[in-house]
Amino acid sequence: VTDQAGQSAAPAVKKAANKPASKPGFFDNNRDGTPFYARHLRITTVRVLAQAFFFGLFVFLLWTTWLSRLGGYPASLFLELDPLVGFATALSTHTVYRWLWRGLLILIPTLLLGRLFCNWICPYGTLHQFVGWLFNIRKNKARIDANRYRSGYQIKYIILAIFLVMAAFGALQIGLLDPICLLVRTFTVALSPAIDLIAGDISLPKLAFSPGASEPRIFGGAWLVGLIIIGLVGMNLVIPRFFCRVLCPLGAFLGFLSRFALWRIDRDLTKCTDCDLCLRRCEGAADPQAALRKSECFVCFNCIDDCPEDALSFKLTPLPVKDLIKGRIRKKDPAKAKPKAKINSDEKQATLFGKPVVSGIPETVIVAPDVPRRRWFFAGIAGVLAYPFLRMSKAVNKRGYHEKAIRPPGSVAEPEFLERCIKCDQCINVCPTNVLQPATLEQSGLEGLWTPVMDFSVGFCQLNCVLCAEVCPTGAIQKTSIAKKLGAGEYQEQGPIRVGTAFFNRGRCLPWSMETPCVVCEEVCPVSPKAIGTYEEEIIRWDGQKIVLNKPYMRPELCIGCGICEHECPVMDDAAVYVTAIGETRSEDRTLLLSSGKKGES
Amino acid sequence: MSDKPEIPEKSDDARPANAADAVADAAALAGHRSMRRRSFLSSVGAAAGLGAAAAWASLAPPSWPLSLRDPDGERGKPQKKLYTLPENGFAVPASATASVLGVARGERFDAMLRAAVDAIGGISRFVERGDVVLIKPNVAFERAAPLGATSNPEIVSALIHLVREAGASEVRVADNPIESPEACFVRSGVRKAAIQAGAEVFLPTAASFETLHVPGATWIENWPFFWRPFAGVDKVIGIAPVKDHNLCRASMTTKNWYGLLGGRRNQFHQDIHGIISDLALMLRPTFVILDGSRVLFRSGPTGGSLADVRSGSTIVASTDSLATDAFGWHDLLQRQGEELPNYFAQAAARGLGQPDWRQVSMKEVQVG
Questions:
Q1: What ipTM does the predicted assembly reach?
Q2: For A335, which DSSP code?
Q3: Distance, in angstroms, between A469 CA and closest chain B CA?
């Protein structure tokens, strides 16, 4: 259908490259005199290169998010560039934390050019497009039909509205579906451990995301996170760009903003023959063949590439021309369109600026998202209700919080934490001991699902490490110096950050209940003076032998809750010394010991 | 078949119009039958073959080729390959002239290390040209060097240079820390020192361990061992800080070998002295360095406060770990009045060294 004779005269300037008449060499200039690279370096090629670059950068930054690869890279750059993260946390906290102003960098091109983030920068979008391209089996008409707009694509706006209303109340849930959060979480919890297993198997440790980890990293709930990405990526086979078109709240956010964009794809009614070929590779299902849905358009430029009539172009502030058409245009059945044959032959041809109108569809643009006002209203109510539903969970309240919901050092108190944490799990990615784990529903409720908690059966909090605080893009874990964590230097007065307190279960402790020497806990206790001391006791053992036992006890005012005692306890399955969240310094409500209250003053 | 057989034109099956057609049809029918026979035979053959193969694999006695039979479940268990270290360890022949203990005092670690090693015969006595040398520092904890919980990176660096000067073709540095390996190596400064001095750092991963067979050991006769850095190694040198220890009271060159083991090390405290004695049996080094530049005299083995550390200004080189550690106990930890920890006696009873350091030849040098 492409190279028809119809495009010969005027479009020849741009379309000469497509003419197969005589094959020019790679470096030969085009016949019209334009340089050779104009033939190869189409805007869509540039777009693919940009996508490859940003996807590569995204993976590279995750790959460098590891102790031995720290080199001043902006490890959480993509999360910070994500304007929805900045906007939603601004709603929930009334502040813009640290690097989140970087989201503005994405707003600028969005307000100028439209939703191009989705198809030029977003690594998740690239993944979906790539998978859709690789496994595409649709041809011709089926392919065109798969890219028509469907009313279901408005769901993402409803999702966005619900999330933003909840955020305004202080329950930040955008991370569940925000593509950057979702992809970082998926890499952290499911993909990079899988890649590490393979890297280990093929003896290429340099490829690994966590080189030098003594044990392969494990993550609770990896199965769910893994299944979700398989499901979402697999949906591309059913509906191309399913996630981007239907679910993505960031896409909805940018789509909403792109109504203000100065440039957009414009359709020339005097050239368009309504052949629908522009839909063949339309990523956003933005209806470029009819009235362009500006909020859906990913600015991928495929339509311009695919248009055989050169009717589509990317223009600065094009205006709707429907009312400027003179005469009546006839609605055509696009399937039967025989453009060349019909023009000139019929009685009276409609014209636009003196040129005959070829297209049967006079509308060229729909600016706003296709969401009726009543549905916005519904979304608002849903958001207002969802907030209390989430907050009634015991897990996120003063009373009844889970004793094992132990937050990393530097975390703000729980209500503020939930206002900030976007569940991106970057902290979990950087944690060198694997102690940080995505929280379960039981530990943190739906509101805190996949937020970071420490599991000391897997790892422990490394004393001189504040990497989680360093990479946190939203300040759920606040930037914390090592001196502040340890309560050293200028922080002496405040004392160290405690994340919990360790307790002995004497019924399972070897010296206390089994006449067996041990005190590994005392050995590994990293604070000085040690928080674990021992009573030396000489006993006559069951076999009559006299032995000396060191029986451990806790000095709670020294314990920082790092959990290395629990991690190293030989009674591994249900450790005889274990940390719970009580006593954490981030919360006035969760203190354990009577204190003078002086700590808070400084 | 037609449902209207009374109309001849439509019931056209098997009604040849003439003789030639009849012959052709007969031939086709014969061909069809033979095809049927052939496909029948090949189906039967395939089924029989698959059946026989399955029967062979599952029923043939285990010793027969291609048999998968496992009558009691033993065959299906993972087979542990046992590794062993050389019978006499990595020691070089005794020397009549060299001292057993070489002690250097001062503040210039580079020169002190050289002097201490010279006192026990010089590096050329121990390392030959082309040797692959493993240096085992103590990097058990994630502590900055001044806190005294890990081997001093300056001295590790000096040791690597010394070994390379002697012509070693490859120098490796390896330890299996208690805390996160990467973090320990970075924080202690050992990683940087080792790499800058031209050594290769081995961090433990799950794949680095093999089961080591230690004949005669009480507890660790077969135990996961950090094998990867040992593959092809000729000489092994330990370099350990002087540390207080909460349970065994002192951690020096003998306890340092703890960092070569993997598995459930947290059980070792149940008989820590027996374990350390086993460690002395497990690994007989080329020589050891006791890094007395700092002494972690309390709150060991982790420390964490500068108040727990004092300067020791001493480096000891020796071919006898027990004598070295006993010297450290007296001279550096300054616990002259106290009885030596029990592991000294246990290891000495196995003939693994001389805990009475005054009995061995010793040369003390003041440097600078």
A1: 0.85
A2: G
A3: 16
Chain A residues closer than 8 Å to B299 by CB: 528-530
Contact residues, chain A, for B181 at CB < 8 Å: 212-214
Give the predicted TM-score (pTM) of the model. 0.88
* Residue of B176, B264, B269 with shortest CB distance to A519: B269
Unique residue bearing structure tokens 């670059």: A53
| Whether B142 contacts B178, CB under 8 Å | no
Q: Are A363 and A322 in contact (CB under 8 A)?
A: yes
Q: How far B94 CA sits from the closest chain A CA (Å)?
A: 37
Q: Are A135 and A237 in contact (CB under 8 A)?
A: yes
Pairing outcome for strands B101-105 and B309-318: antiparallel
Long-range contacts formed by B274-278: CB under 8 A, 24+ apart: B274/B218, B274/B219, B274/B343, B274/B346, B275/B219, B275/B220, B276/B248, B276/B343, B276/B346, B276/B347, B277/B218, B277/B343, B277/B346, B277/B347, B277/B350, B277/B352, B278/B214, B278/B217, B278/B218, B278/B219, B278/B220
Residue A176 has pLDDT above 70, yes or no: yes
Q: In chain B, what residues touch A569 (CB-CB under 8 Å)?
A: 266
Closest in A66, A212, A529 to B181, CB measured = A212
- Is residue A436 a contact partner of residue A468, using CB atoms and an 8 Å limit? yes
**CB-based contact (8 Å) between B271 and chain A?**
yes
Nearest Cα to Cα of residue A128 among A298, A283, A295: A283
Angle between helices A373-391 and A155-169 (to 10 degrees): 40
Q: What is the pLDDT of residues A344-386, one digit of tens each?
A: 555 577 888 888 899 989 999 999 998 999 999 999 999 999 9
Instruction: Write the pLDDT tens digit of every residue in A577-593.
Output: 999 999 999 988 888 99
Partners of residue A214 in chain B, C-beta under 8 Å: 176, 180-181, 203-206
List the single best residue of A214, A458, A516, A525 to mutate versus B (max B Cβ within 10 A). A214
Q: Minimal Cα–Cα distance from B274 to chain A, Å?
A: 12
Q: Is B144 on the interface with A (CB under 8 A)?
A: yes
Question: What's the rounded Cα separation, in Å, for the pair A4 and B103?
Answer: 93
Question: What is the chain A residue with the closest CA to B300?
Answer: A523
3-class secondary-structure state, position B133: strand
Instruction: Kindly report the number of other CB atoms within 10 A of residue A291's CB atom.
Output: 19
User: What is the DSSP secondary-structure string of B241-287?
Assistant: EEEEETTTEEESTTGGGGGGB-SSGGGGGGGHHHHHHHHHHH---SE
